[in-house]
Amino acid sequence: MSLVYDYSSDSDPEGLSSSGKTSFEQGKSEFVPTANGEPDSEGSKRHGKQDELNYKSKRPKRSKRKGKGPWASWSSSDEEEEETGNISGKPVKFDSDRSQPGYRENEFDLKNDNDVETVQESSQFYGESLVDYQGRSFLKPPLEENVNFTKEPLSFRTFLPKKLLHRYAGHGSGTNVVRMLPKSGHLFLSGGNDNILRLWDMYHERQLLRDYKGHSRGIRDANFNDDGTDFVSVSFDQQMKIWDTETGTIKHRYSFSSTPNCAEYRPNNSNELIVGLSNSEIRHYDLRVSHKQGLVQTYDHHLSSIIALKYFPDGSKLISSSEDKTMRIWENQVNIPIKQISDTAQYSMPYVAIHPANNYFAAQSMDNAIYTFSMKPKYKRHPKKKFEGHKCAGYGIGFTLSPDGRYICSGDTGGQIFIWDWKTTHLLKQLEVPDKKPISTLAWSPQETSKLVCAGNGGYIYLYD
Question: 123-464: what fold?
Fold first, then answer.
């Protein structure tokens, strides 16, 4: 007879305890008789569940990684229980799959978060007339200006801008993006931290023509399609919207569970576009497809936030840059990069642009330099074509190239504009903006020889000539 209940003594038969059960049977539920001598099935179930919980609590605790990637640290299940509040041993039911450690955003995440403020979408026209005396839309270049708006890139020579020609009101809390209307360049689009996009006239009275309201937070990026009839905008409110440039109506809306940082139309096909997200994904949409809101491909090889995207001029490939300090080149709609550009000494590159001759692309690096890369297979970096002298560390500073490819022009954290010669990489000119605030976005007119617009943290948009 053992001294402790349910434990066997030396005098007990081998494998039996005082309760008469073998060690194998101790894991099973105990027989509990009722008043009439029948077995109590409910009691057996209760005991079985309790024994199962006790067994689970005694299992060895496994360790899991914190975060993703090979450098993620390990955490024990004790830490996980503290984080999730699961101290009872019962399984936790999550409200959403997003709280799971291995969660990855699904194909399209249309959501109604309480954090995101809903904004009434609207657009107002401020010009004198929607059409000119011939009944043409204001998107058509003005006939009264003594400018040929049909010139091809590389067909005329450009010159260095020398003076400040005009100051636009811009956006009060900072301007994040300026984009010229494709081909003609007689209008340009801007977006800022006031959550508004605005369309400005480069000629006449240089007035505001139309605004576009529909985002609840600052504008992150915006880009026109090939002919300028539509444009896409992405915002810190985790939304992407496609607008009709002329009427201000919204054609498509997309919501994500992470911030979209950049978006770009595919050249020669305005029905396709790509968007780079802060969850390291690039999503490819086709506006003609209704299934999954038109999502046709996801490129997911980067390890951190996507900060820049650029298509090859023929639309066959695309370039992506990420905060993981790498750039990748992809075949269109193929989720396998054909080239990874990386180096142990490489910094993040928040802006990418293609030379008008289509033989090189350039990337702004966080180590205060602009590097150039060949657009031919192997995509090697040019060892001698490097542009330095400005400061851009810690800021997403953009740059632009002249239509003939002769000059490359970059902003600066000290409120200056730097212009280099493309062939020699010599610094040719420095211009200082009046407010001396960082200049983060620039655009050279595609039809003018020396007109350049720039903007940044100060909010004002400056036109130089």
Answer: Methylamine Dehydrogenase; Chain H (2.130.10)
